[in-house]
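Record type: monomer structure entry
Structure origin: computed from sequence
Chain ID: A
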Amino acid sequence: MKKVLNFDTISQYNDFNNHETLHPLVSVIDFSKAKERTGNKMDFGIYCVFLKEVVCGDLKYGRHYYDYQEGTLVFIAPGQFIDVENKTDFYQPIGNALVFHPDLIRGTSLAGRMNDYTFFNYNTNEALHLSAKERHLVLDLFSKINDELQHSVDKHSKTLIASSIELFLNYCERFYDRQFITREDVNKGILARFENLLKGYFSSDNPTEIGLPSVAYCAGELNLSANYFGDLIRKETGKSAQDYIQAKIIDVAKDKLFNSDKTINEIAYELGFKYPQHFSRMFKKTAGISPSEYRSKN
């Protein structure tokens, strides 16, 4: 049984990677300095961004392979757990990482923006795949942060480092936008599967047995994290995943109102609503008229 490694402080992670602690709340790791190791289960209490030096042409995501060769970025947030599987032999880790403690950003503008960086809650198989130019920029930003760590800690250190990390994460947002675009064909395939999933859901007994389909449920059925799935749907359709689901619910409801003699309450229960008034409220908000008005006009 694998030992679980807990990293609640920067010094703990630095020690694990044979790295000097220059600042108690932030570090830039060069994995080539680490000792050889086998796969481990790791529990993180700190933010980590790994630049994995792997051949991305051999990295499989779903049924598709990526062709970026220079590396991938994986984002880990406090409270997350990862497991390096299929690594029973000793190996030399390669790459770099930026790690920082939540206390570093408290009281800074970055703290207020962390929830905007939804990629910290993506699955590791939804990593950011970098081009050569993007990889060079990431390493340059890591270097600038590391240069600041060489200075003695003073009243400016926290602001400068937090600003540099925020700049780095803003670039990552841009890179993910690029990745969504370059994966357009794959994304459209996911969108089609999403549509088929919803069609199948409402033609089954799931609504009465489970209730309304949630974003988390749909993401799980498509083997995606809820955050990645939500961002993908918004990029492809301009709607949130929740709005997309609600539009589908209303579309199915219109068919039922038009093609059956069932009462509005019966239709609401068939769709998965616990309370018919919630159905009527959603219908009017989306369609502009009440279910009874829609039925009478059609």
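Annotation 1: DSSP finds 13 helices and ten strands in the chain.
Annotation 2: Confidence is low (pLDDT under 50) at residues 55-69.
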